Amino acid sequence: MPALLEASKPLSILASGLSLSSTPWVATVVLSVVVGAAGTIHYASPQRLTGVLVVAMADVKKTYLEAVENGALCASDTHIAEKFSNLQLEVSTIRQAFLISSLSHYAMLCDVLKGRTFTILHCIHELHELGTHIEILKESQLREIASRCFATQTTPSPTSVVWF
Predict the structure, then answer these.
(1) How many domains does the chain have?
(2) Model pTM score
(3) Superkingdom of this entry's organism (predicted)?
(4) What percentage of the chain reaches a pLDDT higher than 90?
(5) Containing domain of residue 133, as a range?
(6) Rounded Cα–Cα distance for residues 30 and 12 (Å)
């Protein structure tokens, strides 16, 4: 029976009218909101997104140049070359605007309020689309080359036919 009384001690403490203080809960909620807001501001900051944009542009440029070298893209693909050129110009413009606004915290805040974050996110999305399109062209060319090689290997040559 003493074990049962000891086990009910924590329940008797709660039942004795001692309530949990609301201060730790409020502090936890406020801290969670502040951390969430800071994370969102960091994620949406043009400073971070411009770095992501530059890396995405470098990746697409590498993919584009590899596709040109491998022959997946040729002179007849003017649409892709034009889109790539336009995106390079847009990335350069965004990067220049970021560098100018990075000199002042007020200017960086104004960039966020003006919606520059969405412009950068849209440009990153377009870069990923172009990179994916180029990758698809490269893969289809590789598949075509592989199928041609397989077709030449499986067709018997006239000298390899043996008559019995």
Answers:
(1) 1
(2) 0.67
(3) Eukaryota
(4) 27
(5) 46-150
(6) 31
